[in-house]
Write a structure and sequence with these properties.
Length: 131
């Protein structure tokens, strides 16, 4: 394994820890947001009050904090070349995060995967018989 790939794998491990925290925060936030929407239906003022009362803002703030910590790691992972399955795994974790509706609503999978450089490393690893 190259030194560059070892660094990519280490970044992936750091990113994964944040991703797990982010998913926990999202799982806490989502039912709060659904409940606030159900309560308010189409009344924006009631919706805002419901969000504040339900602790939805605190959950959203935690998600934003984690997102801010994850973004620089994601950018480093995207920029790095993957030469092993561990490196590819790091890129796949970023792709998972990018494809989450809560992170990037409506982003087509092909665009996200291409922009994250997923297909190139997969093809190279398959061509070399790594796996």
């Amino acid at each position: 394994m190259s030194t560059a790939d070892a660094a990519l794998i280490a970044l992936g491990e750091r990113f994964e820890r944040r991703l797990l925290e982010y998913m926990d925060a999202w799982l806490a936030w989502a039912p709060l947001m659904r409940a606030a929407r159900a309560e308010a239906e189409s009344d924006l003022a009631r919706f805002t009050v419901a969000i504040q009362r339900s602790a939805c803002e605190a959950a959203q703030a935690r998600m934003s904090e984690l997102e801010n910590a994850m973004q620089p790691l994601a950018e480093e992972i995207i920029a790095a070349a993957a030469t092993s399955l561990g490196g590819l795994r790091a890129k796949a974790l970023v792709a998972l995060w990018a494809l989450c509706e809560v992170h990037e609503p409506g982003l087509p999978a092909e665009i996200a995967a291409t922009s994250l450089g997923i297909f190139g490393p997969v093809n190279e690893l398959v061509d070399r018989g790594v796996g």
